[in-house]
Write a structure and sequence with these properties.
Length: 186
């Protein structure tokens, strides 16, 4: 019987690419918007705080050599980071670490922030995580061309500017964030 390690490295890389997609976390955002968006769902205080179930992909549990090889690949996949959903009016915005582990965020090599609005708490939380430890080689920030002149944008841009002394931060102004495609891995 042939084991995964008997396959050529190129084929293993294809398998890792298929099994490890860090940008899948965004799918769970939609689950947290639906319960309180429909009218007549009862009082908001009766809705329990949502919980995100995170898991370790099975490929990372096979053996140490495969785990090291797969993680090396995973950390190089560009990670698209969107502002996290608000739970509902009386609760706070969810933290990115409820969807993606802090350890993983600190080991990625290429991050892409896609900001449709200032999302101050989200950005400052990420910068705190990366300020403690990071392996970023580059951070791309996509923001709308027309931004309301708000204090939140000023705070976000100031902190990102300060962060650029540690990691190259490239700003992109776009008409619509839905039209922006993710760049390939670096």
């Amino acid at each position: 019987m042939i084991s995964l390690l008997d396959l050529p490295a190129e084929i293993r890389l294809i398998i890792y690419t298929h099994l490890l997609n860090p940008n899948e976390y965004v799918k769970s955002y939609h689950k947290f918007r639906d319960p309180w968006s429909s009218p007549g769902s009862g009082p908001l205080c009766a809705i329990p705080r949502p919980y995100v179930k995170r898991y370790t992909p099975s490929i990372l549990l096979i053996n140490k050599r495969i785990t090291i090889e797969a993680l090396h690949h995973l950390y190089r996949v560009p990670l698209n980071l969107y502002g996290t959903p608000s739970t509902y009016f009386v609760m706070r915005q969810m933290d990115i670490t409820e969807f993606i582990s802090e350890d993983y965020l600190q080991r990625i090599h290429y991050g892409i922030l896609r900001l449709s609005h200032a999302n101050k708490n989200f950005v400052l939380s990420l910068l705190d995580i990366w300020g403690a430890e990071n392996q970023l080689e580059r951070l791309d920030v996509y923001r709308p061309k027309t931004q309301p002149d708000s204090q939140h944008w000023k705070v976000v841009e100031s902190r990102l500017g300060t962060f650029s002394s540690m990691v190259p931060v490239v700003f992109h102004e776009v008409d619509s964030l839905s039209k922006v495609k993710a760049p390939s891995a670096i």
